[in-house]
Amino acid sequence: MWTPELSLALALVLPALGGVFVALLGSRPNLREAATLIAAVLLAFNVAYLVEIAQGHPTLDLATLAPGLHLVFKLEPLGAIFAAVASGLWIVNSLYSIGYMRGNNEKNQTRFYVCFCIAIAGAMGVALSGNLLTMFLFYEVLTLSTYPLVTHKGDAKAKRGGAIYLSILLGTSIGLLLPAVIATHFLAGSTDFVAGGLLAINEITPAISSVLLVLFAFGIGKAALMPVHPWLPNAMVAPTPVSALLHAVAVVKAGVFAMLKVGTYIFGPALIAITPAADALAWIAGISIVLASVVAMTKDNLKARLAFSTVSQLSYVTLGVMLGSPLAMLGGALQIVMHAWGKITLFMSAGAIYTATGKTEISQMDGLGRYMPWLFIAYTVGALSIIGLPPLGGSWPKLFLLQGAWESGHGWLMVALIASSILNVAYLLPLSARGFFSPPAEAKLKKQPPMLVILPPVITAAGVVVLFFLIGPLRDYLAPVFLSSTLAAEAAL
């Protein structure tokens, strides 16, 4: 009999089983990749069901580690949306991976697909976690399973990038996040995610909440808040499908999702609003938004430029949390969705250009839009969404964040958001201009790119247009999370 609890279990089991079948079929590439796609499609259908039933908050106890310490899944709308984004884009990125990995004759493809499956299982665990302990364990699974993907090429540069990746993410999680989880359990007697905020209803003082908020903000290293961001640009040594899904969607979005979930269910908007450290962290997020954009402008390498763009865009979510405003937190939640679709479009476009030309530097890409018009149109649409131009999905998070900054009395942060959009134009659109309007100096394509590296970014570019018109259902689905948390926390305080 199909039950919500079974569906919660399948969210973890399906990608894990996909990894098993990929490993078993490693010597037969067509079947191996079919197993990846089947697992991705089945997971997406299962998550679609979870999205429908999330308001009922079904729970699945996975294990009891000790009295009061449980591994548990508890479904709620915020986690359901993150799971939907990661599972849906896994299908598109799996198609893209087939074209990219074959088109570039990459080695160790079986290991690549197996680690991808494990990483998606980790992302599902983070999305559906019912307490901090469960989230922490799956957060670490995500880190460890993506390390082989970052170091996939096996050369000195990949090993160095992987070492930075692993040392920062493990260092922040074990050195800062784990102590925050332990302290929360000590102070509140639980690590459960609670409407209104676990710490708020336990009347934690602002001084203690400040210390904990700082530990969480920098302990969740995947959110890439400066100065714990260097892992992200260094991870760009990975093959582009890794950059596209894991560093535009699953890994980095797991970070900012964890930040948003901690802000909503551990602190609560009302407690954040009276926590002194929140103002300082909002300043740091605002500085990260602008400074990372400035650094992006200096990068000629396309993936490096997109990496620093991601650092900037992730800080939007952290900013929304630190403002403690329901509108701003809703803007942060929407940023997780909209940025995922826009940024994966840009990364897949970068990989398609590399596959067709071998070029990685923007200064080398003059005139390429004439050879690959659909790809460059897709890139441009994704870029305009990141900039925040209507009618594209990326415009909505910025609007809600601007309103939230004003509502919370932090009007100065509106300057950072507006400056970011202007800087986005300056570093994202030059590639479009070069591609379409600069004359090519020579025949640029070393080969025709496979259709499977062109079609996926076109699909995701169309997706950012569709998402603009889905704002009503998305807002109605997510807004009660933050409004109810605010009301519950205010009642407790």
TrEMBL record:
Transmembrane segments: 6-25, 37-57, 77-98, 110-127, 162-187, 207-225, 237-260, 266-294, 306-330, 368-389, 409-429, 450-471
Domain of life: Bacteria
Keywords, alphabetical: Membrane, Oxidoreductase, Transmembrane, Transmembrane helix
Compartments, record wording: Endomembrane system; Membrane
Classification via Pfam families: Proton_antipo_M
Main location: membrane
One Gene Ontology cellular component annotation held by this UniProt entry: membrane
GO terms, molecular function: oxidoreductase activity
NADH:quinone oxidoreductase/Mrp antiporter transmembrane domain sequence ranges: 129-421
Enzyme Commission code(s) on record: 1.6.5.11
InterPro entries referenced in this protein's UniProt entry, alphabetically: CPA3_Na-H_Antiporter_A, ND/Mrp_TM
Membrane topology label: Multi-pass membrane protein
PANTHER family for the chain: NA(+)/H(+) ANTIPORTER SUBUNIT (PTHR43373), NA(+)_H(+) ANTIPORTER SUBUNIT A (PTHR43373:SF1)
UniProt protein name: Multisubunit sodium/proton antiporter, MrpD subunit
UniProt organism field: Maricaulis maris (strain MCS10)
